[in-house]
Amino acid sequence: MSEPDRAHPDRSAPHHSETSQPPDWWVFLTKFLQRGRVIASFAPSSRFMARVAVRGIDFDTTTCIVELGAGTGPITKELLRRAGKHTRLIIIELDAALCRYLRRRFPNAEIVEADAADLDRVLDERGIAKVDHIISGLPLPSIAEEIRDRILDISARRLAPGGTFRQLTIMPWVYYRMYRRYFTDVRFKFVLRNLPPGGIYQCSGWQEP
Ligand SMILES: C[S@@+](CC[C@H](N)C(=O)[O-])C[C@H]1O[C@@H](n2cnc3c(N)ncnc32)[C@H](O)[C@@H]1O
After folding, report:
1. Whose CB has fewer CB within 10 Å in the chain, the N or C terminal residue?
2. DSSP string for residues in 33-57
3. Which atom of ligand 1 is nearest the CA belonging to 147?
């Protein structure tokens, strides 16, 4: 695993206004109580989950990573910490208030308020043809099958050769078969130190469901 790119400034360095924001767990819990089905978890991912989410990514050669469903930004923070200037990070979040929170927390990040189902448009508008990795915190199992198919289909088509689609979950192994319907290679990485324990489905090799 490569180390953080020390040649470049730490884009995750907290902006001075971060201290004036409520803590991320509070923002997340409040959102969960308002929009439980869309948020799908009561706590943001732990830093241990965030580390496993990016494990194995070669940040020396990666040119583009997309995050879908950033929430309050635990994965975003790890991505910003690890990626050098040569890696473009596109952070997509549907909820307008969470986007505002993310922009205050990470003023130098590219935060896009959009539906993950519009990923093609988001990438086309930025002249991006392929991405190396997609890290998703989306509540995919609770998204209507048609929309889920669309998100996974676009993601798979946009991945560069050797790229991965990484899905966070708080229900370890439960949806393994669902992801196997879409990808030929699915590996599950368990993360105990998360509330609740969860993990990452690391998927590659697209197949028609
Ligand atoms: C379980 S939270 C994950 C947050 C964060 N990635 C983490 O690990 O703590 C799911 C996030 O996905 C966002 N979301 C849900 N549906 C979405 C969609 N169609 N497009 C983009 N974001 C979406 C929600 O607003 C929420 O912030």
Report:
1. N
2. HHSHHHH--SSPPPHHHHHHHHTT-
3. 19
Query: Which single residue is written with the structure tokens 């009561």?
Result: 42
Segments of the chain scoring below 50 in pLDDT: 1-9, 15-17
* Residue identifier of the C-alpha nearest atom 13 of ligand 1: 69
Residue 105 in contact with residue 27, Cβ under 8 Å?
A: no
Residue 35's pLDDT is 76
Tokens representing 103 are 């922009």
Query: What is the pLDDT at residue 52?
Result: 98
pTM score, two decimals? 0.89
Q: Do the strands 110-113 and 183-191 form a parallel or antiparallel pair, or are they unpaired?
A: unpaired
Pocket test for ligand 1, best of 24, 72, 95 (most atoms within 8 A of CB): 95
Structure tokens that stand for 75 in this block: 């994965």
